[in-house]
Structure formats: structure tokens, C-alpha cells
Amino acid sequence: MTLQLPAALHQHLLAHALETPTLEVCGLLGGVGATATRLYRIANIAATPQVAFTMDPQAQLAAMLEMRGRGETLVGIYHSHPTTTAQPSATDLKEAAYPGVAFLIVSLAAPAAPVLAAFAFDGQHFTPMALRLTESARLQSEGCASLSLGSASTPTQ
Ligand SMILES: [Zn+2]
Asked: Which of 12, 69, 102, 105 has the fewest CB within 10 Å, making it most exposed?
């Protein structure tokens, strides 16, 4: 499966990570099918955010409820690695909790050139997953007023 990520969300995700480049950031991607349509920043409440992330459970719940209200499902979970590569760590694997949801990591090991990678999680293992950046025309939350999208912006399910 290929995760479709609108270019604007990709930019938001990188910007989020770069706001606090020495601390891990995290968040969720809501969407339809395999297409992400909205990014939800979640506060990282880990005791050592330099090397770990723990999503604020209340913010996570609020995001999930908002997704439901918008007709989205959870399609991705992202976090940043300030100094290491865009590969899941042993802790990432141990704490992964959402089989079937894409696991995204942005690496700032080379701050001038952040690397975003996606992985599929089957409940036990991560496997690399294709990530396709798309135009942002389908984004429902921004920049759509001047575009004529017809039915493309309406979720079909
Ligand atoms: Zn990690």
C-alpha cells in the first residue's frame, strides 16, 4: 500500500519537527482510505523528549474524536528523530500500538535536509511503505476557497 500525503501536509509535518529540532515531536494524520487529509499535532509529554515521545492522551483522544466528526480515520502516526535516522527504534517497535496505521518518522539528523519515511506496522514488524506526495487540492482545511474542485473534495465514504 502507498500512503498518499498532500504536499502541504508534508510541509506542515517538517515544519512541526523543525520548530523544536532537539526534541521529538509527534502527531496524527487523519484521512480517507490511504490518503492523509489532515494533520493533528499532539503534545509530546515524554519525560525525556530528546529521545522519546509519548502522546498527550487527552490531546490524542480529542484528535481522534475530531477525526470521527470529520469522517476521517486514523491513517498515520508521526514523530521526529532529532539525531537519528528515519528508522523505527527498538522503543518505537515496543510501543507501537496501531496495526494497519502508517508509522511515519522524520529524521533531522541532517537538519538542512529532513528525511521522511513511512512504515507499515502489522502488529509485530515494521516494513518500509511507499509514500507519495500529492498536490494539495484535496485538502479540506486550507486554500481551497479559490479552487474549483467539483466533487474531489468530498469524501466518498
Ligand atoms: Zn522513534
From this structure: 69
pLDDT digits (tens, 9 = 90+) for 68-121: 999 999 999 999 999 999 999 999 999 999 999 999 999 999 989 999 999 999
Catalytic residue among 19, 24, 66, 72: 24
| Active-site residue, 24 included | yes
**DSSP string over 88-137:** --HHHHHH---TTSEEEEEE-SSTTS-EEEEEEE-SS-EEEEEEEEE-ST
Judge whether 24 lies within some domain.
yes
Task: Flag whether the pTM goes above 0.70.
Answer: yes
Q: State the distance from the centre of ligand 1 to the C-alpha of 29, rounded, in angstroms.
A: 16
**3-state DSSP helix/strand/coil % of the chain, to nearest 5:** 25, 35, 45
Residue 108 and residue 17 in contact, taking contact as beta carbons nearer than 8 Å: yes
| Number of domains making up the chain | 1
Is 79 inside any structural domain? yes
Range of the domain at 29: 2-47+60-134
C-alpha 79 to ligand 1 mean position (Å): 7
* Gap from CA of 85 to ligand 1 centroid (Å): 9
The CATH number for 106's domain is 3.40.140.10
